[in-house]
């Protein structure tokens, strides 16, 4: 962290995220901002977040690309991988290359190769004794997560956790579970809207999400509300 440019970007990231933590903030947009900043600050190819729902089932909550989302989904479907282990054991998991990934999670080796990733690192999202998900970094170069990057990643994961749980509702278990469920339910709507926009405009889903997100920001509309309008055909894709 002796790079002044990187330090400045990190400070700007925390300021940006802190400014959003006000009543009525858009948690989905916040999580996507966070994974984008993680990708850029930590020189990862992609970053994503998985969260546990009310029943404890994990689901993808945010991802910087479609291939990142697919890679996360594969881990969820087979119930194995660094993202799963980080959530299960509440510890940072770092796999430096495909050989290590294959040795530790054999069923994940093919998916890693297909996605073009060389390394995967996962950081648990924890608050006190509760782990609610994991922040995951996917790299196209080999290497473990170094100590400095691990510190930054943990700090950003903490911000993500607080963003979801919010200090005012941590003690209210029902409200916390409802907030998590809302984030995951909103994600489903957004995924449907992405597919509709992509098909209608003949673009890929990453471009479609970029258009939806820009449209929401420009119009001052919550992502989930805009997505609902698109899926219900009330708003043109």
TrEMBL record:
Keywords: Kinase, Transcription, Transcription regulation, Transferase. InterPro entries: ANTAR (IPR005561), CheY-like_superfamily (IPR011006), GAF (IPR003018), GAF-like_dom_sf (IPR029016), GAF_ANTAR (IPR012074), WH-like_DNA-bd_sf (IPR036388). Residues 170-231 form the ANTAR domain. The keyword Nucleotide-binding does not apply. This is GAF and ANTAR domain-containing protein.
